[in-house]
Design brief:
The protein is α/β, with parallel strands linked by helices and about 300 residues long. The protein folds into two domains: about 260 residues, Spore Coat Polysaccharide Biosynthesis Protein SpsA, Chain A; about 35 residues, no CATH class. Helix content is about 40%, strand content about 20%. It is built from 13 helices and 13 strands. The chain has a five-stranded mixed barrel. A hairpin with a 5-residue loop joins β9 and β10. α4 packs antiparallel against α5. The structure holds uridine 5'-triphosphate. Uridine 5'-triphosphate binds next to α6.
Amino acid sequence: MVAHMTQSHPRISKAVIPAAGLGTRFLPATKATPKEMLPVVDKPAIQYVVEEAVAAGLDDVLMVTGRNKRPLEDHFDRNYELESALEKKGDVDRLAKVRQSSDLATMHYVRQGDPKGLGHAVLCAAPHVGQEPFAVLLGDDLIDPRDPLLKRMIEVQEQHGGSVVALMEVAPEQIHLYGCAAVEGTGEADVVKVTGLVEKPDRADAPSSYAIIGRYVLGPSIFGILRTTEPGRGGEIQLTDALQQLAADEKVGGPVHGVVFKGRRYDTGDRGDYLRAIVRLACEREDLGPDFRSWLRSYVTEEL
Ligand code: UTP
């Protein structure tokens, strides 16, 4: 009985983090540096994302990388030279910070080659993931560590099977920037059933104000669909288009549900949101916050 239950609900343990995009919105900073390595206060954005996966119980992380992405691999690896220099100085605090990122999770890497779109990046994870449900966390989407989302999505996937997307209500004039979901209510306040999906619709064609944000828990049937998904919007193989096929026909790979997120989330690939993330997280830090907040207060009142 236990074996049967384990088989029908394998524990989700793998996280896939696509980080092979070109990051054109952040040029020239991203000419030679991946956008996921841009610091948010004093940690690269990608470290928050890996920490979030680990906090949700996912200790096997596959990062999908591309050209210029060596710094990502180095960040999650040991740096013996730096460690021994800090050790010699007796700087235990900084030594702990340096070691923390290499001790977080079991990291794996796969190269995407050509950045043919998010759907194609996810497909690159197929050999590593195998036949299990898995999570996808976009490397440039930062969910505030105090507003957990992924754990709830995993619960919903375990309850309903199929796939689960994260949804956030956005203003109508923003919806063309996102994938958008047509939804039906369920008995649970934070869960909806997704009946259709469209990538970056015009405001007039948007079926709702629910935008898909960068967290997914997917059933392995997504891979078969992605293999035959034609390039869509922007000439890219879109994950949203593959999910639309799942939502349109449950027999293909189970239902698609959405968890409605009401917490704080930042797109660190967007310059405005990146600045907001830094200011907010810095204000709330115990070490930096008090000084920074009082400077910010006087800057806003005296100079703006
Ligand atoms: P974005 O839509 O933000 O694209 O990708 P981008 O190319 O990285 O950024 P801009 O728009 O040019 O500034 C969403 C996520 O999907 C990944 C990105 O790294 C990001 O985490 N991605 C996108 C890939 O891994 N491969 C791709 O081919 C495209």
